Each structure stands twice: as structure tokens, then as C-alpha cells.
Amino acid sequence: MFVKITNKSKHPLPKYETLGASGMDIRANIETTIVIQPLDRVLIKTGLFLEMENGLECQVRPRSGLALKKGLSVLNTPGTIDADYRGEIGVILVNLSNVAVSIEDGERIAQLVFCKVEHVSLTEVAVLTDSERGVGGFGSTGLK
Predict the structure, then answer these.
(1) Would you call 72 exposed, middle or buried from its count of C-beta atoms within 10 A (0-12, 13-18, 19+)?
(2) Section 130-139 average pLDDT
(3) Measured between alpha carbons, how far is residue 70 from residues 56, 65, 93, 96, 100 in Å?
């Protein structure tokens, strides 16, 4: 499957780092260092633009290393890039740590994961069929 990409950044194209990787790391494309204060959020530009076929979405997900080492996450995880979006990919980073965190130009800030998407037709009904789980949610099946 092919996805078209325009790279207006000063960095190489995203790529899978290993054969079994699900995501491709993307980099900050910024002119100066950005400092994110504790509990603040910032939109980081990447200089990347995608064109995908209908039936695909691209999810923007956090990098586990940034989460563990710096307390950074992608705020609207996973962020969704729809097949018909043609604008620049931006990443909303949030600093969940208790110290300021700096983002440098070229730093790997998130990862892109491509997924198939199904469009469904909704059928409105008055009552849903019962199931074993029923209305239980939010931990109703236990913690262990």
C-alpha cells in the first residue's frame, strides 16, 4: 500500500526503524527550541503533508521514550489524520511532568501508524440486544 507524502521539512522522510515496527517516527520541524512548561500544550509542526486513499487513516501516537524520559504525550491520542486532509501534520504535545521540557528541531516527537477504516451505516433501534457484559463498563470486569 502506498501513501503519497510531501516533505517540506529539513529532515528525512519518516521510516520504520525495524521490520516489526508499527509506527514511523516523525520529527519536529521548528526554527527555534520550544520549551513546554508543566501541564502546558504546544502544537509542533512537522513539515509533512500526506495524501491517502479513502479507507485509510493515519494515527498520530506518542513515543514511549518521550513519555517515560520527559513526561511528554500527544494530547489527543491518537490524533487522526483523515484521508481527505491535505494540510501540514501538526502534533499537539502536552508536558505531564513537573519540570519544563525542551523540544529541539529534528527531535522525534511522535509516530505515525496507518490503519484501515470502515464506514458503517447506522440503524436506529429502540432497544439493543442484551449481551453477557450488558451495561457494565469502566472496570466492571475486574482489575485482575
Answers:
(1) buried
(2) 81
(3) 31, 8, 11, 8, 9
The sign one gets for the Cα dihedral 91, 97, 103, 107 is negative
Domain spans of the chain? 4-116
C-alpha cell at 74: 500527544
CATH for 4-116, options being 3.40.50.2000, 3.40.50.2300, 3.40.50.300, 2.70.40.10: 2.70.40.10
Bridge partners (DSSP) of residue 43 are 92
What's the pLDDT at 139?
73
Please check the confidence at residue 94 and state whether its pLDDT lies above 80.
Answer: yes
| Locus of grid cell 527531535 | 107
